[in-house]
Write a structure and sequence with these properties.
Low-confidence stretches: none
Helix content: 25-40%
Number of strands: 17
Shape: elongated
CATH superfamily of the largest domain: Vaccinia Virus protein VP39
Distance between the termini: 76 Å
Structural class: alpha/beta
Mean pLDDT: 92
CATH topology of the largest domain: Rossmann fold
Strand order of the largest sheet: 13-12-11-14-15-17-16
Oligomer: single chain
Number of domains: 3
Number of helices: 11
Strand content: 25-35%
């Protein structure tokens, strides 16, 4: 590589020298600054003129002009759109995915039909824009079935669906093709965990790979969580995540349908129940009430809703379902929209005290 003009200055004069070269407009920003034990070598856009050297002499007691070979500085694109400018037609750029889910070293995007032709280009752009990403997956189907799974297509990087995800100090092994997981519930996982009392017993009725259960166990020394899931693959990841996070004394993994498991083994044991199955949690309110202790407890109820007032609708449905069990809601402790899942459709949570 050719040598580039530079200014050699003592390391103690680094900030002053950088400010001066920026003021003169001669600092080359696409090369990395070199250094040795005592000196910095600042790359220049060109050889200095006499007037510029005179200006430097007024501020720096010691300096030397010379030439060196410098390493180029890599400037990462700041956004997916930046990375694709010039590669896609301008009218197509407007349809780019507005959000990307990052799960471990996997990025998950939704490719609209009008961008299907460009999916490989988009995948490569995501890899360039986010250097920690090793795989880019495109959603190929909605979440369906008892196990809440969707299919994916690899559109960039390594062909895989398994990864290790970190969230609030916890580690989760997951395979997105085999077990449901979304980083969009990160705040909700931490919020619920923060509400659990230190000695509570919790039943996590639809535990998946354990994001609610394990965070509770990590935060609360004397709490115990029964983590139930019907998906055998999710159950295997759940057991692994319990061991990796060292909470095996506080989380009991249970493979099976939550209705059968609660009715046969966990009736009346819980101070708190988590019902994160928004597609059909309404159908399991009676099971959750059965899991709660006879004196009552707290229920975290999730549902999808597309009505004009989703939180009020969720509260009303929960009141109705609890009443049918012979229990009642003493108070609504909290209700909020967790996230949007489609235009005018939301995931809602209601925290209720059940008596």
């Amino acid at each position: 590589m050719p040598e580039t003009p530079c200014l050699k200055i003592p390391t103690s004069q680094g900030e002053k020298g950088l400010d001066l070269l920026r003021k003169l407009g001669v600092l080359r920003s696409d090369f990395k600054i070199k250094r040795d034990q005592d000196h910095l070598y600042l790359p220049l856009t060109r050889a200095l003129r006499s007037a510029e050297i005179d200006e430097i002499e007024k501020s720096l007691l010691e300096f030397e002009t010379c030439a060196h070979v410098f390493e180029g500085r890599i400037n990462h694109p700041v956004s997916l759109a930046d990375s694709l400018t010039g590669q896609l037609p301008p009218h197509v750029l407007a349809s780019l995915p507005r959000s990307i889910d990052f799960i471990g070293d996997i990025a998950v995007v939704e490719i609209p039909p009008e961008l299907e032709t460009y999916k490989s280009t988009i995948g490569e752009a995501v890899l360039r824009a986010h250097k920690r990403v090793q795989t880019v997956l495109a959603k190929w189907s909605p979440v369906t079935g008892v196990y809440r799974l969707r299919t994916f297509e690899v559109i960039g990087g390594e062909a895989k669906t398994h990864t290790i995800h970190k969230e609030h100090g916890c580690i989760f092994y997951v395979d997105l093709a085999k077990a449901y997981f979304t980083p969009r519930l990160s705040y909700e996982h931490a919020r619920v965990a923060s509400l659990v009392g230190n000695s509570e017993t919790v039943v996590d009725m639809f535990a998946g790979v354990g994001p609610f259960s394990i965070q509770i166990a990590k935060r609360r020394a004397a709490a115990h969580v029964y983590a139930i899931d019907v998906n055998p693959d999710a159950y295997e990841f759940l057991k692994k995540n319990i061991l990796v996070n060292r909470v095996e004394a506080k989380v009991s993994a249970v493979l099976g349908d939550s209705r059968q498991t609660v009715n046969e083994k966990l009736s009346g044991v819980a101070d708190r129940v988590i019902m994160n199955l928004p597609e059909s949690a309404f159908e399991y309110v009676d099971v959750a009430c059965n899991a709660l202790k006879s004196k009552g407890g707290i229920m975290h109820y999730y549902q999808f809703d597309d009505t004009p007032e989703p939180m009020e609708t969720a509260k009303a449905r929960l009141h109705q379902a609890v009443k049918q069990t012979g229990r009642h809601i003493k108070s609504i402790l909290h209700a909020r929209i967790v996230r949007g899942i489609a235009p005018y459709t939301y995931q809602v949570v209601v925290d209720a005290e059940i008596k």
